[in-house]
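Help! Submission page says 'invalid entity' but I think these are all valid:
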Amino acid sequence: MTEEIIIAGFGGQGVLSMGKILAYSGIMQDQEVSWMPSYGPEMRGGTANVTVILSDNRISSPVLKKFDTAIILNQQSMDKFEADLKPGGTLLYDPNGITRHPERKDINIFKIPGAALATEMGNPKTFNMIIMGGFLKVKPIVKIENVQKGLEKSLPERHHKLIPLNIEAIQKGIENVETVISL
Amino acid sequence: MGDIRLMKGNEVIAEAAIRCGCDGYFGYPITPQSEIMETLMIRRPEQETGMVVVQAESEVAAINMVYGGASCGKKVMTSSSSPGISLKAEGITYLAGAELPALLVNIVRGGPGLGTIQPAQSDYFQAVKGGGHGDYKLIVLAPASVQEMNDFVDLSFELSFKYLNPAMILSDGVIGQMMEKVELSDFKPRWTAEEIEKISGSWATTGKKKGIKRRISTSLDLDSAKQEVFNHKLQAKYRAMEENEVRFEKIDCDDADYLFVAYGSSARICQKAIEIARAKGIKVGLLRPITLFPYPTKQIQEMLGQVKGILSVEMSAGQMVEDVRLAVEGKVPVEHFGRYGGIIPTPDEVVEALEQNFLGE
Amino acid sequence: MTATTELKNIISEENKVYGKTSVLLDNEMHYCPGCTHGVIHKAIAEVIEDMDIQEETIGVSPVGCSVLAYNYLDIDWQQAAHGRAPALATATTRLMPEKYVFTYQGDGDLASIGCAEIMHACNRGENIVVFFVNNGIYGMTGGQMAPTTLEGQVTATSPYGRDCQTTGFPMKISEMVSLLPGTRYVTRESAETAGAVRKLKKAVKKAFANTRENKGLSFIEIVGTCSSGWKQTPVQSNEWMKEHMFPYYPLGTLKDE
């Protein structure tokens, strides 16, 4: 199994840390992982994306042009990465702020109201874990228990009290992802 | 199972330095490698292993601190990125001239000039052919994964002390900024003063003991005859490195009709390109130089009876390709494919270049 | 008694009034006649012997006339790139804090190309001693203008006299470094008379004592001559120094904390 994923949105949406938790979860199930960020020179508010690869084998290029999955969290990223999905790939997006919805017919498309759900949960920082939940529902490549272990390993001890909230957010995402197109 | 982490290449350099018993790091901030010094400052190794970390006033000062530390027989290092390495070039040639061991890390960015902060491999010539003045060579290691960033720190010190010559880890922002799974090395204690006397007592300036000759760390000899003799000695050392220290990796070469030669991050991209090309029925393999000096010249030559064409893939306008051509001596066509100025080639582009150059497409 | 036996009898421990310190090697010095470096080397060597710190002292020599200082003092030495001696000394003292580390630099090395390194080593208060030999000229390269060359002084690159409007003004380095909190002891000395050398040796001793007590950076400027560069006899040089250098670079301790 090799899963090549792009996660793209604004800086501050937790794009990079979501990728990191996903990669750590892969390590917890003995997979090879890579996490390759790309961002502008701005310290705050620019676009951010990260390529995450989980594989049972040695990973070749950490830099990719074609992806199995795109998790898209703003319009610029939709414009940039929709075309980069492999045919039959998976596009998951949050419709919040999206003015041009995905148009391809040869991919699976799912949406999740991550921003709205995060507001509902009363904590905007749960946003990326809600999205993660949505992703794991449509592509269960890592087990939730390994996500939990990944969080334990990647978060400093003083933040471990936030793990239950993160798991709750993942559950919220699992419950609320909607199919737009399923091939 | 050892200590397995998900870490950035730059962070791993810092962690590996602490764990391998490095005595001192001297650096100056420059993107995209500042995490090395930042990680060290967060880790506070002076409290854990006694390793000293100094933010110098300039790259020039940093490399000269390395010279001072290396002169004491200590395991010392610096890191920088392209423009900073240019500033350090003088100090680097002094290290080579004084036969001092040290680890230099270059996380290359696109140039020339201030250039870009994005990854490039356009400092190959600088690292391998000189960079500073005089006839000298660095041992140059090119990691292609975060794991190798870990492994090559200790290896660089080992080779550096074996040959009394500075060693460079030549990488870029792809490997430096990327996180991968890495198994960290076990902790090795720093050398004690007694161990340093035993290992480097013939040259380390640790204070002249009674009855032994004073030790001088210098690259100066105003007598040309002596300077030539010294240069012969250096050249003999470089030939010994060529004999004993070539490191490389071959991937999918057994049945290959075509060959990619690429190092570091370009080698990773070529591995994906191999998957794509082989899915199309093109039998291509990869020879990945791990040491850029000494260069795997013989290993490339061994492929010549088998392959119909060689594509050197680099994030530069064509530097390593010259060494490939020197190895090949015109026996098979050698072409270069590169993206530069901070652009990373995609695996598809690499396959296209292979097809265009050798398959008449 | 023959004259030889008579001499042999005289050479005995009880008649000894002077002995060359063993820290000073017997190598023939390459310095020009009348040069101040030899006197300063000897002063430092004698203090190293007096304080019994030969085994614990590491010197860092510069680029310039004193690049070969390592041929004259019998201690371990590092030879630095031009201006960078304080960087080498920084790492050496950080990695071997129990050692006595000093740099020995001229005015071209320290005050021109090495300005950043000396200022920052002083500012960090590195536990080292800096010997700054100021003779207002580049000696080794053939007498060019230095940052410390006096106004109107003729050198190979100021053949009509230093014009401060275009070349800047002679830099008072000791005054500058004395303003930095990292320096503990800053003094300006000379070495043209026996009395001056005695004073210099006192300063050297104090500086190394500061190192022993981990007090930070001690900076000793020594105003010296360059007969060849100044195109004068040694005697004229000393007179010229007293008349022109001392008024602009006044001797004495600037800081002692």
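Support: the input was valid. A stray whitespace character was the problem, and the output above is from the cleaned input. Chains A and C do not touch (no CB pair under 8 Å).
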